[in-house]
Amino acid sequence: MLNWKKVALGSLSLASVAALAACGNGGSSSSDSNKSEKGGDKLVVSVDPGYIDYMKGIKDKFEKDSGVKLEVKEEGMMDTLDKLATDGPTGAAPDVFLAPYDRVGGLGNEGQLAELKLGNEADFDDTAKNLVTMDGKTYGAPAVVESLVLYYNQDLIKEAPKTFAELEELQKDPKYAFAGEDGKAVGFLAKWTDFYYAYGLIAGYGGYVFGEDGTDPSDIGLANAAAVEGLEYAKKWYGTWPQGMQDPTKAGDFITEQFVTGKAAAIIDGPWAAAGLTDAGVNWGAAQIPTLANGKNYEAFGGGKAWVVSNYSANMEAAQKLVDFLTTEENQTAFYEATQEIPANTKAREAVAAKGNELTTAVINQFANAQPMPNIPQMAEVWEPAATLFFDVASGNKEPKAASEATVKFIKEAIEQKYAE
After folding, report:
1. b/e per residue 219-249 (b: at least 16 CB within 10 A)
2. Of 60, 136, 187, 320, which is least packed with CB atoms within 10 Å of its CB?
3. Does the structure show a pLDDT above 90 at 309?
4. Domains of the chain and CATH, by start
């Protein structure tokens, strides 16, 4: 699930270059001929298979209220995005579709997504709004929010730990000792060699990726004193974990295996992991990630998806109406009931929180402390070096200060080479 979060912000593909050539400076599309052919009172909305029933459920009301005919197309979200630059100019792209937040800013800046107005702006928090904004322009309407949470095995511990101090005590419990490696334990595990998972630790100590709320790539905060302090704390944990936790490619599977087999008591993962844990028969609970050793919150990246409009659409006015319709409290609540995904609309979020679902509550509480993932293209240069930073610290290859300074230097050089004006 997380691969697209990192791949999404990679360097421009050939399709993206084609889009830039077609769309100029990220303003309006040059496909006016397609617009005149495809317009009228009809919209095509594309969604993943899991969302088809929801879309069909709200289709009649939208058509009645707007007078616009709605065609629902079943297609994988990433397939739609990957084909947008080529399908858009030919008129084959849908008008409205979903996109992960970390694709919204880049696609908007390339001219592939239309600039929108948030019809329900008062119903979105600043974190959600920042996720769809780039250079002061809004390229999507927040649909779903997500963040990492703490899962715990209720057969092993009755209540979720509330502090990392409690997790440290859990790690010392002999029943979580790891067979075959003396002095190592699996009471609590976290995949910190993946920067998506690790960032909440760094941020909780005061480190950051880019300054100015993630918009200034000239200011990289992964080597400041606070970030180094967070890395020092991570190093302590790696000193207690089995060797398998240092393998960036296999640590995730190792963590899952330890948890589903009843050996690990608590892990950090996302809401997407819940179905698999249930299928594995784990009696799991979910909670907000415990308070860090410095007394601060674990500030994980906030993520999710937004409704977006193709800049090649022939019916922008109707597309805006559909996006506004899809993000009302009523329809966002219905979306949750159909998919169990947390609505971005804060009123809808309050409504679903009242239903008492433990995972829902955990995600909502964690998202309240989340930081918007930077959606500028330069973020593509951060993922792998930042993951290597944690590996170097975990393996003992470098001390935290030296490792972080080397990482920042590497990222800065990559950004200067690829994004020089």
Report:
1. ebbbbbebbbbbbebbbebbebbbebbbebe
2. 136
3. yes
4. 3-146+302-372 (3.40.190.10), 149-299+382-419 (3.40.190.10)
